[in-house]
Specification:
alpha/beta, 27% helix, 5 helices, 195 residues, binds calcium ion, homohexamer, 7-stranded mixed beta sheet
Chain lengths: 195, 195, 195, 195, 195, 195
């Protein structure tokens, strides 16, 4: 049962793009901030060691660059939990880094991630977005799942040649080299405060 | 010696539905809050890593969504212990997530879980209820154990075709997509305070 | 060198019943409360993972139900140590749960466990006593070791058919379904305070 | 290069008796109290898991029974280190329990362990001394190393039949069932305070 | 996709030189200081145990020698994170020690590491720079990636015989025996404060 | 590239003697005190478990005997780091114990270890110096590396028969049974304070 695009109601969820033996698919990356305790990171979803490190990098980037990400002076000194359903499916690799960072930035800023945007890309501690594999399958999966836009690493531009024209016309593609650019696209504007 | 439905006398116990090589059966998920110490989660019952992660997800969801779950401003900054008897039987898989969340929500809110309701379903950190396997065997086991109602994931609706009519008539089935809906069914009303 | 019944001089020791390849035998479960430090549980005696979990469950039950166990408002926020001699003999299984709970309840309440009472049974976090194996061998061992009474899980009643009549006449058998009932039998009355 | 009896100049060293493939020998058990930090136990000397547990049991006994051991109201809430030279020789088994307890009791009380007394025996958390193996080889080794007295578990009395008469005449043997009795023999009197 | 020299915009990144089965290449070593929490070091990038120890040595050197490194009285009592992209590529060996130290010294001092300087060398806790392998391949890689200068261990001087003359003319080579000398070359001057 | 004797400029480095498949050699043992944090010991240099325990023993001895070592009332309640270059070379065994203790005593006291003195020997928690292997190869290596004096365990005296006369004449040999005696030789006098 593959996931499809959904309206996202609260901060702390982003839509990632993955590749499995059966082709591309979308997956959701969830995060929660625990109400108190020592700062730290709990990770679930049967993630392999590379993907666990991605979550650590994403959180360290958000914590050390909160100002530069335009997140205000959010309090990040709390324990966080990152989960990637489905819970019994093993997952690995660095390409969920952008989605993990978006999820955590969403949670910290209180701004929702847009539900019609999928994203893939490795992130570095300093916020660079590095190229990943499976671009064609991922864009096709985004289209199939009903996403309107996808965010890809700039250095993956050559891979877009393989994406069919009709898909490229239906899905708006953003190429980014820095996580700030991905967040500017993916995060919704702050909620207007009720007067 | 299979378990059967029991009257539940105190908060912190819920009735789950499981599948083993010998068919479906019910199991009890227990939780306790330790009187003090650092927040954390101790897990027993020879649970495999997927099921241990389910318990972590359930607790993180309850801790980060206590308000939205209608649990009042319960204090959740304590150590918790989750146990699934029998203690020597290895168990694994994500499908006890709903029962684990119900158990912890019960404990935190002081509202008992109804003893005549069985439940199965994977939970995500944001409270979505995801489909699980073994639906027919689980509903049959619930019936056999004397349960009056069962809570199942909405996305498992197609699996109900396999459940015999006489069982469907005897057992009331609730399909839910969110943990809030499961808790609304499973938790008893708060005890009236003595005047 | 098998153990035999002894007079128990101080709180924190209970007599369990075990089964080995060589038949039943009694064993002692010891506990100590360390004078200060973070709450926690140190376990020794070459215990396997199921038996280690039994000790965790026993302590969590005592800590979360101290009031209901009639233990007064004992302070349980200390580190505990549970040991099962002999130190070089590997041991495993859930059936020492009742003895472990009795040992810890004794320590916390300052009431000695009766030295002429043996006990076996799995315990759950909520205090249910679940059935265990080897009942006949255990009752025979209790008799051989000179114990006057044994506490067994209620759901093991059918196994008593196998116990020889002369043993059943010599040893008083208590069947219990809840740990409170086991403790009511096993713990001595509080010491009278000197006037 | 086997060890021989030595004059012990400071608290925190006791003489144990061990058996190896090459026969019995004596070994020294050393302990130190670290000047500050969280209470805990660091263990070195390539000790196997049973012997590591012996050190944990010895420290827990001393910490929880300091009053009953006649050690005054010593402060035991510090980190301790137990070492058994030689550092590259793997060692295991429960029989150093009495020597470990004597070493720690010495350190805590400031009373030296007598250098002419060797000791062997398993200890339990409540202070019972349990029988161990290799009694004949150990007593011979004590004699060969120049020790004047040895402390053995009372339940090992039958093993003394195997010890040659001339050794039994040369070495004074103490049989003990409780650690208090071992400590009464092994610890020197407190230093007289300078007036 | 090999990395090439880049302008470095912020403190906490240095350019290292590595050797793989496919020849030499440059890699970036990133560091971040987390805003609060216990001092410690989180390491990502699928680093092997020798390379993880290099990061520990680098941080311990910076923390214990902050004054001597001319870093002012920087506050180093915070958690640090070191990452070496790409995240899915296993890496090991001691030769990134100099780059790791430069990255951390940069972060602590707020001075950027020059983007046109590559570096290789093992570091010791006291700041010595020890020789490493693959010097020729590393210098060739630095040249190919567009770096203007490289820092090498002094004890690797004999290896420079293998570097082609045209490369030695294009790339300025610094031989250093102490980390202070490497930092004097690699770190940019402090930013002038706006008046 | 073997190490040779060097002038030691700051406290926290000592010269050890080791034996490898290729004969004896000298190695440096480095230590650093981290500016703050919980007391503890970080160990690097690919040390095996016996050598790691040596470092723990050395630190515990220094911390528990600071007064008796003539180190004044140094503050030892800090985290320490011990490193033995080269970082990628696995090392093991107890014979660096004396050098580790000298390094740490140097660091704590602020007195440098003499750079022309090599040392080998196992240390116990109470400060005894135990014999080690490879004495001949170690003394030859000390001579070859340009060291003027070596410190050896007293119980290794018989091994000196194997050392050639010309080496014994060139290198001054100290035999010690206690770590205090080794430190009295190895540590330089305290720096005179500038008036
Ligand atoms: Ca708290
Ligand atoms: Ca892996
Ligand atoms: Ca507490
Ligand atoms: Ca698994
Ligand atoms: Ca304390
Ligand atoms: Ca097991
Ligand atoms: Ca402290
Ligand atoms: Ca073992
Ligand atoms: Ca904090
Ligand atoms: Ca390795
Ligand atoms: Ca601090
Ligand atoms: Ca080893």
């Amino acid at each position: 049962q593959r996931e499809t695009a959904v309206e996202i109601d609260e901060p702390g969820v982003a839509t990632g793009l993955a590749v499995t033996g059966a082709g591309g698919e979308i997956l959701f990356v969830e995060a929660a901030a625990l109400p108190d305790g020592e700062s730290g990171l709990q990770i679930t979803g049967q993630l392999g060691d590379v993907m666990r490190e991605s979550a650590q990098i994403a959180l360290a980037h958000v914590r050390s660059h909160a100002g530069g990400l335009g997140l205000g002076d959010a309090v990040t000194d709390r324990p966080y939990h990152v989960h990637v359903p489905a819970g019994a499916t093993p997952k690995d690799g660095p390409s969920a880094g952008v989605a993990m960072t978006a999820t955590l930035a969403s949670l910290v800023s209180g701004r929702r991630v847009r539900g019609d945007v999928g994203m893939t890309g490795e992130i570095t501690l300093q916020g660079k977005v590095l190229p990943v594999g499976g671009i064609t399958a991922k864009v096709l999966a985004a289209h199939r799942a009903g996403l309107a836009e996808v965010i890809l690493p700039g250095r993956n531009a050559p891979d877009l040649d393989e994406v069919p024209d009709e898909v490229r016309e239906a899905v708006q593609i953003h190429l980014v080299d820095r996580i700030e650019d991905a967040l500017a696209i993916a995060l919704e504007a702050p909620e207007a405060l009720a007067a």
